[in-house]
């Protein structure tokens, strides 16, 4: 079968190690797929004056290349992809869950007086608006802190967030790998931590058959990663920007935070609706959407 060219927004290692392994080890080619990784929009610097996430475009980073017509698929956190499916101008919708289960945390510097989640009330926390640890931070903290006392500020780049925390520009920041490991190696404390799903999101160009072929290749990549996790951790050090990351060794990583599952599984509808309703409650997405507005059910179910 002839598939369309797969033009994937270039993933980071934390959300796309399986894509990088599948490409490097010829797994896409075995499925008859031509895959190109396409650079997408840059991430935002820390700005403590930007506290309203609705003043930040949901597709300025993830989905930027798709929206300008240079890519036809990307993956990002599931929460953000509901919002991007709402905001798209090119018919992007979610297809299924990605393989990467991402570990995220809220960290504070070694000299911080914050030791518990309750102490984060009214303290500035740098997060990447519309990306995974933004939503995760809200979900992790709202059990400890009243909503109006959770004070988030915009910071898209993980290196920027980490440095803003370390130099005192903000009190805390959200981190994901390899920046969780960087934070721990430098004496920072993780105040709260959790895991989250992501999804593949694509234009109508990605068919049921193409998505199934992609996931066959990624499934083999996941099997290889899970059989030798530490052997693949060099991707984090080699690919992630930031001088702090280059000081790491593969032995520094906690393997319990490196989680990959079978890719392409459907989003259970009850989870989808709970997530959507929670996002509405935080003004993270508009009311009134149906499932098919956010998910390409014709591709998700068969694939």
Order of helices and strands: EHHEHEHEEEHEHEHEEHHHHEHHH
* Rg, Cα atoms, Å: 19 Å
Q: How many structural units, i.e. domains?
A: 2
Instruction: Please report the number of helical segments.
Output: 14
CATH topology of the largest domain: D-Maltodextrin-Binding Protein, domain 2
Mean pLDDT: 94
Structural class: alpha/beta
Tell me what portion of residues adopts beta-strand conformation: 15-25%
By CATH, the architecture of the largest domain is named 3-Layer(aba) Sandwich
Any idea of the CATH class of the largest domain?
Alpha Beta
Outline: globular
Distance between the termini: 16 Å
Give helix % range. Answer: 25-40%
Jot down its keywords.
single chain; 303 residues; alpha/beta; D-Maltodextrin-Binding Protein, domain 2; 2 domains; 6-stranded mixed β-sheet; 3-stranded antiparallel β-sheet; 14 helices; 11 strands; globular
Question: Care to describe what's here?
Answer:
- This protein is of the alpha/beta class and 303 residues long.
- The chain has 2 domains: 6-43 and 57-101 and 197-242 and 259-300, D-Maltodextrin-Binding Protein, domain 2 (3-Layer(aba) Sandwich), CATH 3.40.190.10; 102-196, 3-Layer(aba) Sandwich (D-Maltodextrin-Binding Protein, domain 2), CATH 3.40.190.
- The chain is built from 14 helices and 11 strands.
- It has helices at 13-24, 27-30, 64-67, 78-87, 132-141, 158-166, 179-185, 208-227, 229-232, 234-239, 243-246, 269-281, 291-294, 297-300, and strands at 6-9, 35-38, 73-77, 93-97, 100-108, 124-127, 151-154, 172-176, 189-196, 198-202, 259-260.
- Strands 5, 6, 7, 8, 9 and 11 form a 6-stranded mixed sheet that branches. Strands 3-10-4 form a 3-stranded antiparallel sheet.
- Strand 6 (124-127), helix 5 and strand 7 form a beta-alpha-beta unit.
- Helix 1 (13-24) crosses helix 8 (208-227).
- It is globular and about 60 Å long.
- The mean pLDDT is 94.
């Amino acid at each position: 079968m002839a598939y369309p060219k797969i033009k994937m927004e270039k993933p980071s290692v934390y959300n796309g190690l399986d894509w990088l392994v599948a490409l490097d080890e010829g797994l896409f080619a075995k499925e008859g797929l031509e895959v190109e990784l396409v650079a997408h929009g840059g991430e935002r610097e820390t700005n403590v004056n930007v506290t309203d996430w609705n003043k930040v475009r949901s597709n300025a980073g993830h989905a930027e290349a798709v929206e300008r017509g240079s890519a036809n698929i990307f993956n990002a956190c599931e929460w953000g992809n509901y919002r991007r499916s709402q905001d798209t101008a090119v018919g992007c919708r979610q297809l299924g869950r990605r393989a990467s289960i991402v570990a995220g945390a809220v960290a504070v510097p070694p000299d911080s007086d914050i030791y518990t989640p309750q102490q984060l009330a009214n303290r500035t926390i740098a997060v990447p608006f519309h990306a995974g640890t933004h939503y995760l931070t809200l979900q992790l903290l709202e059990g400890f802190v009243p909503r109006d006392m959770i004070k988030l500020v915009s910071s898209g780049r993980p290196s920027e967030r980490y440095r803003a925390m370390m130099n005192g520009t903000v009190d805390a920041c959200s981190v994901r790998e390899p920046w969780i490991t960087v934070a721990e190696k430098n004496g920072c404390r993780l105040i709260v931590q959790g895991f989250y799903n992501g999804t593949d999101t694509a234009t109508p160009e990605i068919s049921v058959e193409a998505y199934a072929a992609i996931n066959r290749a990624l499934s083999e990549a996941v099997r290889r990663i899970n059989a030798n996790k530490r052997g693949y951790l060099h991707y984090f050090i080699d690919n992630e920007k930031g001088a702090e990351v280059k000081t790491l060794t593969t032995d520094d990583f906690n393997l319990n935070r490196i989680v990959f599952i079978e890719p392409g599984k459907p989003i259970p509808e009850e989870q989808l609706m709970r997530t959507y309703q929670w996002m509405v409650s935080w003004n993270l997405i508009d009311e009134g959407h149906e499932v098919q507005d956010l998910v390409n059910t014709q591709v998700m179910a068969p694939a």
